[in-house]
Design a protein that fits this description.
Elements: E1 3-4, E2 11-12, E3 20-22, E4 25-26, H1 37-44, H2 51-54, E5 58-60, H3 63-74, E6 80-83, H4 95-110, E7 114-119, E8 138-142, H5 148-154, H6 161-173, E9 177-185, H7 195-201, E10 207-212, H8 217-220, H9 225-243, E11 246-249, H10 264-271
Length: about 270
């Protein structure tokens, strides 16, 4: 795997997952077709030119050395460090990235810094048994469907949905806090599916984050986007309240008491189940 060198690694974050983030990899091999917001952001900044290049990840060779320098500077300000905002720390079928991610989590935990982690890959079994692993770490997966045909089309090189859930459930059974990011949740013109079925599959988690699909030409063609996402957000809230699960609805997803578009009530039931 190609390597890159960086001058810094830890940075302040505005995401709800944590107050600091780090990205020890540039690019992602999962090849998501939503499209990928991280790729669009990096292309806009001139860091990467093509999506093909983005899908060939490069590892930050001096990541651990940077942490040794930066942790003392920021330690008193950090509540959580998130892995990762613009890449995937447990990228499916990328052992070099997985090993570096494990070392980074170990180093942060050894300095009494908690981590939040999000992946479309699978958490390795040894993660839960590593010495020095903080019980306060929070591990999450992205899960927007249970349909493998949908995954193969929109997340072609990511881990199978069932494998993600199984790995997360293993961490949960060992006492770690777990969560699910249901973002970007697809509109019914991309896939017709039962949201409640997905929620039931992850009913063991501590928190669910729900968000809409953005930047998609196909999704934007759906006429009832506002009503759809509002109803789905309300379903997530109801499910979480009934099951004692914390939740967060991403900004721009839920509209309070939206005025239904003409024809909404007539087409709602046939398009999705709940």
């Amino acid at each position: 795997m190609k390597e890159i060198y960086r001058k810094s690694l830890l940075y302040r974050s505005e995401v709800e997952y944590a107050d600091f983030c780090l990205n020890h990899v540039e690019g992602c091999s999962h090849g998501c077709k939503y499209p990928c917001y991280a790729y669009m952001m990096k292309k806009r900044c001139g860091i990467v030119k093509t999506y093909e290049d983005w899908c060939r990840p490069k590892i930050v060779s001096n990541a651990l050395e940077l942490l040794d320098k930066e942790i003392p500077k920021h330690k008193d300000k950090i509540r959580y460090v998130h892995l990762c905002f613009s890449t995937d720390p447990f990228m499916f079928d990328q052992p070099e990235i997985v090993e570096l991610s494990l070392k980074i989590i170990d180093k942060l935990n050894q300095n009494d810094i908690r981590c939040t982690v999000l992946t479309k890959g699978c958490y390795p079994k040894e993660l839960s048994g590593r010495n020095g692993q903080s019980a306060n770490n929070e591990y999450g997966i992205t899960l927007v469907s249970l349909d493998e045909n949908f995954r193969k089309e929109f997340e072609p090189n990511s881990a199978p949905f069932k494998d993600r859930i199984k790995a997360l459930k293993n961490l949960n059974s060992r006492g770690f806090k777990t969560w699910v990011s249901m973002e970007p949740y697809p509109t019914p013109n991309l896939i017709k599916q039962d949201l409640h079925e997905i929620l039931e599959a992850v009913s063991f988690v501590n928190k669910i984050i729900f968000g809409r699909l953005n930047y998609s030409v196909k999704s934007s063609e759906f006429k009832y986007t506002k009503e759809f996402y509002n109803s789905r957000a309300l379903s997530v809230i109801k499910f979480c309240k009934n099951n004692g699960i914390d939740y967060h609805i991403k900004a721009g997803t839920q509209v309070v008491n939206p005025e239904p578009s003409k024809g909404w009530r007539q087409i709602a039931t046939p398009l999705w189940n709940r």
